[in-house]
């Protein structure tokens, strides 16, 4: 892969690598098109993270310095289809990579944002009218916090106090309660006018 080759180019070292490519998934887990849609999601948001973060980690370990930020999501702590499963994988993988690269000078951070003010939701066809205004955070706040946590070597970064509190409850509430909350969120986000069995690409680099 060209990106992996660039990450391992010793003549052009990269000090900070951010895995942030992704898109909104609108497919049910039981749909007839489950294979193509969800496999594409796994390719972009799991397989690419595995390959590229691994490449970056190897190159940075050889130099003895560097930082990797993999964008997960607070959604990885709930149960909203394959998107939650994918983001849970990113968080777990990132922590495993951090363990592997400990004491090498390379840091790995799983960034787990909540609702961020970007074009992502509009492009993904996600209805956001029911989301309270206090749940939204600015992209600049997210970036500032992520870079600060990465510089400190923090392995899991959850921006803002309110989302850290939400994350604590998501990790400690009974699983059946988490599933009930997830169903409520999924219902409020669904948009009959969108594409319920497809994807809308919102890839960023």
From TrEMBL:
<comment type="similarity">
    <text>Belongs to the short-chain dehydrogenases/reductases (SDR) family.</text>
</comment>
<protein>
    <submittedName>
        <fullName>Uncharacterized protein</fullName>
    </submittedName>
</protein>
<dbReference type="InterPro" id="IPR002347">
    <property type="entry name" value="SDR_fam"/>
</dbReference>
<keyword id="KW-0521">NADP</keyword>
<dbReference type="Pfam" id="PF00106">
    <property type="entry name" value="adh_short"/>
</dbReference>
<dbReference type="InterPro" id="IPR036291">
    <property type="entry name" value="NAD(P)-bd_dom_sf"/>
</dbReference>
<keyword id="KW-0560">Oxidoreductase</keyword>
């Amino acid at each position: 892969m060209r990106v992996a080759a660039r990450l391992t180019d010793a003549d052009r070292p990269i000090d900070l690598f951010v895995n942030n490519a992704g898109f909104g998934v609108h497919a049910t887990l039981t749909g007839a098109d489950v294979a193509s849609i969800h496999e594409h999601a796994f390719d972009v948001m799991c397989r690419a993270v595995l390959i590229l973060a691994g490449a970056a980690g190897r190159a940075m370990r050889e130099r003895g310095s560097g930082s990797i930020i993999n964008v997960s999501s607070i959604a990885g702590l709930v149960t909203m289809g394959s998107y939650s499963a994918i983001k849970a994988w990113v968080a777990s993988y990132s922590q495993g990579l951090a363990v592997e690269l400990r004491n090498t000078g390379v840091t790995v951070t799983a960034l787990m944002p909540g609702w961020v003010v970007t074009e992502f939701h509009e492009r993904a066809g996600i209805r956001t009218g029911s989301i309270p205004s206090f749940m939204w955070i600015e992209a600049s706040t997210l970036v500032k916090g992520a870079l600060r946590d990465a510089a400190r070597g923090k392995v899991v970064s959850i921006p803002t106090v309110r989302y850290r509190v939400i994350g604590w409850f998501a990790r400690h509430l009974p699983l059946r309660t988490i599933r009930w909350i997830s169903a409520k969120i999924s219902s409020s986000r669904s948009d009959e006018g969108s594409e319920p069995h497809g994807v809308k690409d919102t890839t960023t680099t």
